[in-house]
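S1.2 Input.
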Amino acid sequence: MMIISTKEIESLGISPKTCVEWVIRSFMMKDTAQLPAKMPVHPVGNDFFTTMPCLLPSDMKRFGVKVVSRILGREPALKSDLLLYDSSNGDLLALLSADWITSMRTGATAALAIKTFRRSKVSKYSFIGLGATAKATVKCLLDYFPNEYFNICLFRYKEQAEQFVLYFGKNNRVSFSIVDTMEDLLKDAGVLVSCVTEAHELLVKDNSLFEPGILVVPVHTRGFQNCDLFFDKVYADDTDHVKGFRYFSAFHHFDEISNVIAQKSVGRENDFERILSYNVGLGLHDVYFASHVYDMLNTDSIGKCL
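S1.3 Output.
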């Protein structure tokens, strides 16, 4: 069994563009994988342990289960680990630190949602919640769209916005502005990405701030329940993961993003539709990423074996 650290995964130099391509490929095999809904438990307050299993299609011979946890006061508060098995014989292949995988597959999925559902011309991309997931999303946008320029507006929180700008400061295909109000964040925004991990109330209470044609991508699903009731279309990466949402039955139109990618159903039909894309995070992506990471490291004889 290999024990694979974040440092070893990062040493592979997997590009953000590759991460987007892996997300697309794993979405395309969703119908032939076994993907039970994730199961959370809550030891206290908003702390949680969530178990995310997935059996990849039979020809890949891989099963995995990721455990992601959020514990208030721990540094970092959010962590994840993944067990990867050979499904043909049950052998445990590897224990992986899944923090890099979680961050990059989430950012790649958000970037793919933006590619799939944004209107034809977007001049402003707005972000709230500026941690590792937001950085991964911008990395994927820049790498997957090498010929595009991005004007990104950041919502100020502590020193996060300024640090975010410094992180990407040397890239000449992105410019940043920082605002202090939701009104300024949403004005003329074609895309709003929220990577806020905890929200006890609506993040945008005035529905009129969501202009026609906007795409809202609540990466961690929190804070946009009002949009469920009046947005024209709602998409998610898996039905079972969102069918328990309070307003699921009130969605005007619902479908899975994988069906749009596979051209089984339509996505955006005009530049006026308000679209909500819930990226709840799939064990499918985690296990697919982990399988590739294991194969790459195993080939190079990197990793600690027991």
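S1.4 Remarks. The first strand starts at residue 2 and ends at 4.
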